[in-house]
Design a protein that fits this description.
Distance between the termini: 48 Å
Strand order of the largest sheet: 6-5-4-9-11-13-14
Order of helices and strands: HEHHEEHHEHEHEEEHEEHEEEHE
Strand content: 15-25%
Helix content: 25-40%
Structural class: alpha/beta
CATH class of the largest domain: Alpha Beta
Number of strands: 14
Number of helices: 10
CATH architecture of the largest domain: 3-Layer(aba) Sandwich
Shape: elongated
């Protein structure tokens, strides 16, 4: 196997699992431990991982995980958060649901309801709602595979044409506390526009996001109505956020 190909496969393994081990990689690629250590050292110098005892972990902010990877994380917490969010939606409301794996869980719940006008930039959200008895509107734009959503000037121009009762957005993390963040500047520009067009704005994020952060800040906490998270959220960090906005525990 070519050197570049092996290193890319190691990186793919990291994206999928968050951790890799020298012993397993050595066996998988049929090379020596020393060869794998050199591969990990190279990837560490590129800023893509952090070497640890016996392996390596994914470096925060270095790689954006795909939607398919993120949707498998903390699924029970996401379902509880989505249920709490559903309780906040009035009958016959107009709603924008943004991209994210937790927002999709809310879409699955709304698919069992009727009478809502739902707008989204997310293909998974659209798929979850396509057979429901709600009015569904999918914003157009350039497709972004990493987040399975659309973006760009066309998307923003359509968002500006609607004013909704409530919106729900995801976040990749906020360990720096300043506000919810995203690994994509294009996704951030869409989320910022969505917040402007909604009377109430909620961030849906499980407690693991208190330990993670991304490159681009979406907004200040004071710009949103509430953060909805699960009861395992770090109490000290939660109290800091509560100075700026409401935190609702699922």
């Amino acid at each position: 196997m070519l050197l570049e190909k092996r290193r890319q496969l190691i990186l793919d393994e990291l994206k999928n699992n968050g951790t890799v081990y020298v012993s397993k990689l050595s066996e998988q690629f049929e090379v020596s431990y020393e060869t794998i250590r050199k591969d990990l050292s190279y990837l560490e110098k590129k800023g893509l991982l952090i070497k640890s005892h016996g392996g390596a972990i994914l470096k925060q902010n270095a790689i954006e995980l795909s939607y398919n990877t993120r949707e498998k994380e903390n699924t029970s917490d996401k379902k509880r958060i989505a249920q709490k969010a559903l309780e906040l939606i009035p009958d016959n409301a107009s709603i924008i649901i943004g991209t994210g794996s937790t927002t999709v869980e809310l879409a699955y719940l709304l698919a069992q309801k009727s009478g809502y006008k739902i707008f989204t930039d997310s293909l998974p959200v659209t798929n979850a709602l396509v057979n429901s008895d709600n009015q569904l509107f999918f914003f157009g734009g350039e497709f972004r595979p990493k987040s399975s959503s659309v973006f760009g000037g066309w998307t923003i121009s359509q968002i500006k044409q609607v004013f909704v009762d409530i919106c729900f957005l995801g976040s990749d993390g906020f360990s720096n506390i300043d506000g919810p963040s995203s690994p994509s500047s294009s996704d951030v520009s869409i989320d910022q526009e969505i917040i402007k067009q909604a009377d109430k704005a909620f961030i849906l994020a499980d407690s693991s996001k208190f330990e993670r952060k991304s490159l681009y800040k979406i907004c200040d906490w004071s710009d949103i109505t509430a953060l909805i998270t699960d009861s395992d959220a770090d109490e000290a960090k939660r109290s800091i956020i509560e100075k700026e906005t409401t935190v609702i525990l699922a």
